[in-house]
């Protein structure tokens, strides 16, 4: 069997045989399909990554099979890229140097549900975890809008926040991730358990520094949520109402998103359900708070168009409200027009609507804003995931500079390195990479800092964190 990636010099037939009894996929079309994620959101990454493929896919069903794959990869010096649902946006699970893709979706059992937590295998679909929790009267404290295809391990390794983060913060907030069970890539892979603050050694490391086999995550009591849509005559009004709702402790919504009217024009499933050509406020709030919510919307000059229980939503054939927030908003536009792209922006002061208006004026017609509110400790913050009508890398850079001039941080969505997006190198991650992946086989090429420090000891690398 020849190398599909064209980047490895390995006898893939013999290697595939050595993985038995683990299921493998070697059909080039299928291997290529599993080498992709949602990097195509970015025309820059699409150009860089669309010809990057793995060579073989393994689909272990339990931890012992995963350990077997990792031990074989270590012995043969094979690069290994973990893959859950493949919904990452930056080529997180694209094998840059070819090699073995390990898909986790057959390791999908929900192992334990307790008071305030769930423990599941890394490949469990988030929607399945939420369904199991619902039977116990609980729900995940947060989940990404991709819950139907994304795995709990992929969310922890690649994601950061989601539906619920307005109530309970990002994944990294203390208490949200309780424990992670992680395998090393060695001749005889070892199990390491990270608990409490220690989970940050592995969280959002893109599968660079260990293979997550089990996740224990925070759950909250299930509530009767209403998926709500309200419309406004101006973005400023919609944003101001969004901030007021996000900070209304008596209503306690778990999601508040504000979407530019022009983006909402790309939501065909909402036609006849919301007023057209208006800026949109999407939220989830407890059913018993409907009257308070409607009063807030009216006070702010808006119109409460939709407030749906799950049963009513299904009966009306309307998608979940969360399919119009986070990166699903971008997806709705891209379904119609691939010349759009997006960016990730930090808002310096979530309460400052005037600053948002000034920035929108400066950005002009080619950037359409979309804000998400989320909690960080006691405060409510905002991020912007705007639609940008792409006119080339130079113009994108100019747009980034406009954000920076206005004091808004750009977390660049057009970079396939873990330190991209304005993030500093996380030397805790890299120190653990040295300990758990001494040959540097996991997701190679995804860390800018790793080549500079890989010759140091784990303690020397950790010391760089300061
Ligand atoms: C439409 C859309 C909406 C999105 N909405 C959100 C959102 O609301 N919030 C959010 O945070 N993100 C969001 N994302 C990004 C992405 O969906 C999430 O990060 C998601 O949870 C990833 O899960 P996955 O199973 O698809 O992971 P994958 O894409 O398969 O993998 C993500 C990363 O984790 C690594 N990985 C996977 N499994 C393991 C494992 N067991 N051990 C170690 N490393 C592993 C992979 O190598 C890769 O680097 C969105 C993306 C899209 C396309």
UniProtKB/TrEMBL annotation:
Residues 50-222 form the FAD-binding PCMH-type domain. This is FAD-linked oxidase. InterPro entries: FAD-bd_PCMH (IPR016166), FAD-bd_PCMH-like_sf (IPR036318), FAD-bd_PCMH_sub2 (IPR016169), FAD-linked_Oxase-like_C (IPR016164), Oxid_FAD_bind_N (IPR006094). Keywords: FAD, Flavoprotein. The keyword Cell membrane does not apply. GO terms for biological process: lactate catabolic process. GO terms for molecular function: D-lactate dehydrogenase (cytochrome) activity; D-lactate dehydrogenase (NAD+) activity; FAD binding. It comes from Sulfitobacter alexandrii. PROSITE patterns: FAD_PCMH. Pfam families: FAD_binding_4.
């Amino acid at each position: 069997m020849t190398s599909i990636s064209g980047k490895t010099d390995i006898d893939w037939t013999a290697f595939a045989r050595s993985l038995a009894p683990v299921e493998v996929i070697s059909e080039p079309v299928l291997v290529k399909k599993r080498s992709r994620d949602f990097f195509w959101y970015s025309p820059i990454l699409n150009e860089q990554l669309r010809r990057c493929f793995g060579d073989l896919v393994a689909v272990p069903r339990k931890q012992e099979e995963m350990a077997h794959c990792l031990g074989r990869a270590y012995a043969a010096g094979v690069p290994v890229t973990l893959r859950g649902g493949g919904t990452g946006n930056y080529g997180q699970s694209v094998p840059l140097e070819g090699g073995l893709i390990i898909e986790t979706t057959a390791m999908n059992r929900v192992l334990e549900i307790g008071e305030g937590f769930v423990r599941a295998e890394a490949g469990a679909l988030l929607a399945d975890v939420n369904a199991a929790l619902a039977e116990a009267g609980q729900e995940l404290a947060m989940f990404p809008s991709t819950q139907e295809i994304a795995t709990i391990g992929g969310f922890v390794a690649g994601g950061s926040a989601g539906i619920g983060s307005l109530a309970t913060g990002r994944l990294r907030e203390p208490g949200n991730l309780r424990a992670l069970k992680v395998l090393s890539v060695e001749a005889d892979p070892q199990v390491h358990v990270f608990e409490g603050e220690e989970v940050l050694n592995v969280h959002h490391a893109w599968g660079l520094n260990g293979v997550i086999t089990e996740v224990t995550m925070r759950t909250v009591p299930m509530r009767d949520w209403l998926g709500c849509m309200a419309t406004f005559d101006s973005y400023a009004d919609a944003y101001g109402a969004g901030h007021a709702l996000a900070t209304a402790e008596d209503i306690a919504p778990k999601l508040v998103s504000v979407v530019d009217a022009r983006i909402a024009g790309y939501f065909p499933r909402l036609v006849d359900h919301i007023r057209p050509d208006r800026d949109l406020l999407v939220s989830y709030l407890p059913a018993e708070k409907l009257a308070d919510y409607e009063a807030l919307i009216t006070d702010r000059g808006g119109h409460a168009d939709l407030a749906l229980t799950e049963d009513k939503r299904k009966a009306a054939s309307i998608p979940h409200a969360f399919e119009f927030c986070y990166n699903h908003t971008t997806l709705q536009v891209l379904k119609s027009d691939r010349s759009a792209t997006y960016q990730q922006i930090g808002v310096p002061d979530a309460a400052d609507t005037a600053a948002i208006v000034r920035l929108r004026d400066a950005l002009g017609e080619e950037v359409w804003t979309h804000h998400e509110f989320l909690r960080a400790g006691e405060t409510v913050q905002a991020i912007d995931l705007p639609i940008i009508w792409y006119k080339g890398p130079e113009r994108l850079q100019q747009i980034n500079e406009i954000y920076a001039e206005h004091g808004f941080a750009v977390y660049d969505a057009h970079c396939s390195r873990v330190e991209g997006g304005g993030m500093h190198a996380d030397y805790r991650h890299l120190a653990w990479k040295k300990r758990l992946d001494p040959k540097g086989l996991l997701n190679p090429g995804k860390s800018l800092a790793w080549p500079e420090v890989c010759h140091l000891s784990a303690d020397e690398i950790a010391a760089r964190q300061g």
